[in-house]
Design goal:
Layout (H helix, E strand, L loop, with lengths): L2 H6 L23 H22 L6 H14 L3 E5 L2 H11 L7 E5 L5 H8 L3 E5 L10 H7 L4 E4 L11 H11 L2 E5 L7 E2 L2 E2 L6 E5 L13 E5 L2 H11 L20 H10 L3 H21 L6 E2 L7 E2 L5 E5 L4 H10 L29 H9 E4 L7 H16 L4 H10 L1 H10 L6
Parallel strand pairs: 2-3, 2-4, 4-5, 5-8
Antiparallel strand pairs: 1-9, 6-7, 6-11, 8-9, 10-12, 12-13
Helix pairs in contact: 2-9, 3-9, 4-5, 4-8
Bound molecules: pyridoxal-5'-phosphate.
Length: 427
């Protein structure tokens, strides 16, 4: 047969050319480019306007952002700064916290919550979390208050407020400051109040992965206290007032106008994005429950008196299977993350504090069991379906399409029955 015949497809005896396998579409944990695409023209115009104005630092865009954050949180003052980490540092500096002082905070949080304390020479006192919400366990806090305690930093982890009322009550009783780490919780609510306006100072991050993300680093402080607000403004700008006269030793944590301009364009969309996150969270919870998967993994708990803003949707997978599930999903190009794999009391840099293994049992269990699933607002329905189906496959085996409807109608027991006959290897 000539090559021309082969090219014409007339060689019926030859093996069929391999059909290229359709590539698996990745489901990212987070994809910031989709949000940018939606607002690209508006953001470019806002950035050009800042460049044209020449007001690059603490310009009118920053003032506008502060005013919007005041309205959003209901706090009397909002003071912009360079990052969430700086917000925490500045909040502690506003209380003159330093050597000899102790600050109570969770160990199950991002590093910045505690590093702000140690950067000032004070000591973080780590307290365990509630096993279901992963937020500070208030009942543990009172036991750790000493004559050296100056402040408590509750963290609103994953977008749900910590149980603030008893924390504030206890702080008032002992004369302690309450600094809310609301870095993951913009727009979150607690008994009719907004995150950042419940304690004495609220700290926000606009890191790109947050619910309201800048195009770099940016942060915000909120407070109802006039004197604290003045001090925070001074501290973020080298304690300088007027120019070249320094009342206090502050830091340089001024916010770039370019970041504020991006955030001002995005802010009107925040509530819609939060709703989209909530819809995705509810779908995960409904589908996992319907498919009987809540017997294999603990789903997120939402307290009735809170508005959760779902910065993360985090499940707990016990029995040492969390990492196997992550590997299974990674094979299917589904992104996940662990927030956080090593609690702060077990970090090398805090070994001098002497917390032994088992000292914060719920925190240590969370580090071994939690995994965050894709939940960003632009996640498509078909992508979320792939995540749900892959997790179902991991725990109970693939559901044949013909049985999918039955599973939906029969609910968890259907899958329990299937689960009873699957081999251990399928897990
Ligand atoms: C709980 C928590 N605290 C503090 C921070 C620090 O914020 P930033 O990254 O803006 O410095 C973050 C951000 O990752 C956070 O999640």
């Amino acid at each position: 047969m000539s090559s021309a015949d082969r090219a014409a497809g007339s060689d019926t005896s030859a093996a069929p050319a391999p059909v290229p396998a359709s590539p698996i579409q990745a489901v990212p944990l987070f994809d910031i480019s989709r949000q940018h695409a939606e607002l690209a023209a508006e953001i470019s115009a806002a950035l050009v306007a800042v460049c044209d104005s020449g007001k690059f630092v603490l310009g009118p865009d920053v003032v506008q952002l502060e005013a919007t954050m005041q309205r959003l949180t209901g706090a009397k003052h909002a003071v912009a700064c360079a990052s969430g980490s700086d917000a925490l540092l500045l909040a502690l500096m506003a209380y003159d916290i330093g050597p000899g002082d102790e600050v109570i905070c969770p160990s199950y949080t991002f590093f910045a919550t505690a590093s702000a304390v140690t950067r000032l020479g004070a000591t973080p006192v780590f307290v365990d979390i509630e096993p279901d919400t992963c937020n500070l366990d208030v009942s543990q806090v009172s036991r750790r208050v000493t004559s050296m305690t100056r402040a408590i930093i509750p963290v609103h982890l994953y977008g749900q407020c910590a149980d603030m009322q008893p924390i504030v009550d206890m702080a008032r009783l002992h004369g302690l400051a309450v600094i809310e780490d609301a870095c993951q919780a913009i727009g979150a609510g607690y008994r009719g109040k907004q995150a950042g306006a419940i304690g004495d100072i609220g700290c926000f991050s606009y890191y790109p992965t947050k619910n309201l993300g800048a195009y770099g680093d940016a942060g915000m402080l909120t407070t109802n206290d006039d004197k604290l607000a003045d001090k925070l403004r001074l501290l973020r700008g080298h304690g300088m007032q007027p120019r070249y006269y320094h009342k206090l030793v502050g830091i340089n944590s001024r916010l770039d106008s370019l970041q504020a301009a991006v955030l001002n364009v995005k802010l009107p969309h925040l509530e819609r994005w939060t709703k989209a996150r909530r819809t995705r969270a509810e779908r995960y919870t409904q589908e996992f429950t319907k498919r009987g998967l809540s017997q294999f993994m603990r789903l997120p708990t939402v307290r009735g008196d809170r508005k959760h803003v779902w910065n993360q949707y985090v499940v707990h997978v016990a029995g040492g299977k969390r990492d196997a599930l992550r590997a299974f999903l990674a094979d299917r190009k589904i992104g996940t993350e662990v927030y956080y794999p090593v609690p702060l009391h077990q970090q090398e840099c805090y070994s001098y504090l002497g917390y032994g293994a088992g000292s914060l049992p719920y925190t240590e269990a969370a580090a071994a069991e939690t995994v965050a699933l894709p939940i960003f607002p632009e996640l498509r329905d078909d992508e979320q379906q792939r995540v749900i189906d892959a997790i179902t496959e991991f725990f109970v085996g693939a559901i044949p399409p013909s049985e999918e409807k039955k599973a939906t109608l029969a609910g968890p027991n259907f899958l329990k029955a299937r689960d009873g006959v699957r081999s251990e290897q399928q897990r």
